[in-house]
Task: structure prediction
Amino acid sequence: MEKLKVIIADDHPIVLLGVRELVERDPRFCVVGEAVCSKGLIELLEQQPVDIVISDYNMPADSPYGDGLKLVDYLKRHYPHVQILILTMISNHLILTRLQELGVVGVIQKNQLHTEIELALNAIARQSTYQSLEPAKTSVIDSNTAIDERVASLSPKEFEILRLFVAGKSVSDIARSQSRSAKTISAQKISAMRKLEVSSDQDLLTYCLERSIFN
Result:
C-alpha cells in the first residue's frame, strides 16, 4: 500500500518535530516536507504532489499567502485534491465553522494534539472528515463591561485595522492595502488590543466575533 504523503507547516520547530514524530508512527503516512511559513509551504506544494497538508492556523505575517482563513482558501482553490488538517489554539466557533465550510478535513486544538492526531489520521486514511473534541467555551468579556466605550475609544485607523484583521487578513496584507509599513500596522493593532483589554489574537477574535462588532 502506497503511503500518503504529508507536508507539515508550523513556525515553531518543536511543534514541527512533535507532529512529524506523531505522523511517522503511523505506517500509512510519510512526511515529505516541512515549512515554517506559508510561502515555504506553497513552494513545497509546487515541487511535488502530496496528499495531506497539516498546517498551523497562525503563521508569520510576512508571507504573500497570509495565514488563517486566507491561506486555507488559497490552498483549496489551487490544490483542491490536497486534504488540509489545521492545528490551532483558536476556539471561536465562528472561525471553526468557516474552516469547515472551506473544506478542511479536520481541526485539531494544539493543547490536545497528542490525543487527537491519531484519531484525525485514522479519519483521513478512511477518507473521512475529523470532528475535533469540543473546545472549552471562553469569553473575554465580562457582562458588566462597557463594550461600547471600549470600541468608541478606538481611532478610525485602529478600527479599520481590526476590521481587516478579523476578516482574515494578516498584518502584512493590511500594510500593503494601506500603503504603510507592517511595523506601523502592528503597533496600531497592539494599541487597539490594549484599549479593548485583550492580550492575544485569539481573545481579539473572540471579542469582536462574539459581539458582532464589525457586522
